[in-house]
Amino acid sequence: MSWHATILTLFPEMFPGPLGVSLAGRALREGIWRCEALDIRSFATDRHRTVDDTPFGGGAGMVMRPDVADAAISAAMPDGDARPLVYLTPRGRLLDQAMVRDFAAGPGVVLFCGRYEGLDQRVIEARGMREVSLGDYVLSGGEVAALALLDACVRLLPGVMGASESAVEESHSAGLLEYPHYTRPAEWQGRAVPPVLLSGHHAEVARWRRTQSEAATRERRPDLWNRMQVAGAQAPA
Ligand code: 6GU
Known about the structure:
It contains 8 helices and 10 strands. It has 237 residues and is an alpha/beta fold. The structure holds 6-chloroguanine (6GU). The site of 6-chloroguanine has 14 residues, from strand 5. Its EC number is 2.1.1.228.
């Protein structure tokens, strides 16, 4: 069975979008995963196909109606569908590689893309939706976040990347940012490649890369760095 992504959105034409090309696109054509986008608006029941309404308590913007969202979810998930139901919102828990690994290891995901100010809280609770965010900035809707989440999952599916590459991703730099990369020419615009990388001393290269990874993590991601210190993750070579 294919890994199955269903996206609930007001803009189904955005899918598979960029995931129709390159690695994910090939995997899609090979049937490794399936991408099905449903138009939330098609579950509206009134003449004007209304999906939103004004917020109780006042304030700016519009809120997605729980009845329309719930009908869309029912259509996406038949009884017994074991896939996690994810609501993409800047209010969500931050997406990380552990969450991506979990999603990729299961039967697939159902992604609900928010627009406007958000979705009525009652349907989030009634359906046990998992609220997920990409980071601390605001996108105009959940669709671009859904594409990012799917890209991260699909590259982990068996047969998508090469087993060697995926193995490297896990073990090598666990909890650290990647070291910088260089290729030919050895000198470009007066800039030399760090000589250690040309030395042929594999242990020296590994030590240099580790130092670079640690320095970048300390400077750019003190959050990751401190978490690593707390965890006592004196990762091996
Ligand atoms: Cl999941 N949605 C929106 N609208 N903005 C975001 C986000 C999600 N993650 C980061 N910014």
